[in-house]
Design goal:
InterPro entries: DUF554. It holds the Pfam family DUF554. Keywords: Membrane, Transmembrane, Transmembrane helix. The chain is 77% helix and 0% strand. By secondary structure, the protein is an all-alpha fold. Helix 2 packs antiparallel against helix 7, helix 3 crosses helix 9 and helix 9 packs antiparallel against helix 10.
Length: 225
């Protein structure tokens, strides 16, 4: 778990630095930082999909995952509950920023593959690299949305910790194809988050989060036959 602890620490440090910067940054600079973050998120999302799509053995699975996952998320109203929860503690657009932070921190290839590499091979390279990237991202996010972004660090700890334990439990049951499909869906969600930051299209990405669990379920069932 040393890699995950490093990752969480870098997020907290980045949020602290970004919050200090926020006090001296004019609104116009906040806006340009938000646009920069939106462009970065869309590019990260596109890159994840472009890299992984050619390796996909189930080319339509991401469509099914988004559709089914979206229906589940809408029925549970994840976005609505999340917005209300964040609204109790802070005003403004922190909810949007926090949702983007969670997606950027948790759904990237390094954040997904890192815990598995650490658990199965004791290789922390992915997590250390991811920690450095998340630290830089945190500076930009916190300078725009405030220190509330640090709440995402707890989500990262739970997310990567769960993947680490899952890798230890399942080991042989995990497949590259499964991780590949999850990364494709995750890349699409990050892309959608970037569109929202750029005010191109507001997408309830949190309602689409259940889409991430569909590929493992479908592939696991298909492997039984």
């Amino acid at each position: 778990m040393i890699g995950t602890i490093f990752n969480v620490g870098m997020i907290l440090i980045g949020c602290t630095i970004g919050t200090l910067f926020k006090k001296g940054i004019k609104p116009a600079y906040h806006e340009i930082l938000l646009q920069a973050l939106g462009l970065a998120a869309t590019l990260i999302g596109i890159n994840a999909v472009v890299q992984r799509m050619p390796q996909s053995k189930y080319p339509v699975l991401f469509i099914v995952s988004l559709a089914v996952g979206g229906l589940i998320g809408q029925a549970l109203d994840l976005q609505g509950h999340f917005d209300k929860l964040v609204g109790r503690f802070s005003g403004g657009n922190l909810a949007e920023g926090l949702a983007t932070a969670i997606l950027l921190y948790c759904i990237g290839s390094l954040s997904i593959l890192g815990p598995f590499e650490a658990a199965l091979k004791h290789d922390y390279t992915f997590l250390f690299t991811n920690g450095m990237l998340d630290g830089i991202t945190s500076i930009v996010l916190a300078s725009t949305f405030g220190f509330g972004i640090a709440a995402a660090a707890g989500v990262v700890l739970a997310w990567q910790g769960s993947l680490y334990v899952l890798a230890l439990i399942l080991q042989g049951a995990l497949s590259t194809a499964m991780l590949n499909e999850v990364t494709i869906v995750g890349g699409i969600l990050i892309f959608g988050s970037g569109l929202g930051l750029l005010n191109i299209k507001k997408i309830n990405t949190l309602n689409l989060l259940p889409a991430l669990i569909i590929p493992p379920i479908v592939i696991s069932v298909m492997q039984l036959f």
